[in-house]
Amino acid sequence: MARILAIDFGTKRTGLAVTDVLQIIASGLTTVNTNELIKFLKEYTNKEQVELFLVGEPKQMDNTASESEKYILPFINNLKKEFPSIPIQRVDERFTSKMAFQTMIDSGLKKNQRKNKALIDEISATLILQSYLYSK
User: Fold this and answer.
1) pTM metric for this prediction
2) 3-class DSSP string for the chain
């Protein structure tokens, strides 16, 4: 088996999470500046076997696409072009940022540590991946 890599795409930063090779455990990988994301993914996939990219799909409460979808779609097209052999699946990411923030509170992180937006992005990617694994 190979890893599944989840992507919480943002215009500035992108959170990444990955499974173990048995696809049992979701773990935060890192947060990358979005302008360096494809380069990072190329380096990562050269070292690790990835069988699926999960890309968060932000939706409004009425199930329509979020405003940020207009930035995600060009990224997905680029991802398909750069990694034609790795399939891409979308996962509803509603509330992941709020859940990530609550996770930080529940973990006992101090207020100034909870302001770390990169950590929120990484935890959000982990939540996206975890929800996918639960649904399998």
Assistant:
1) 0.84
2) CCEEEEEECCCCEEEEEEECCCCCCEEEEEEEEHHHHHHHHHHHHHHCCEEEEEEEECECCCCCECCCHHHHHHHHHHHHHHCCCCCEEEEECCCHHHHHHHHHHHCCCCCCHHHCHHHHHHHHHHHHHHHHHHHC
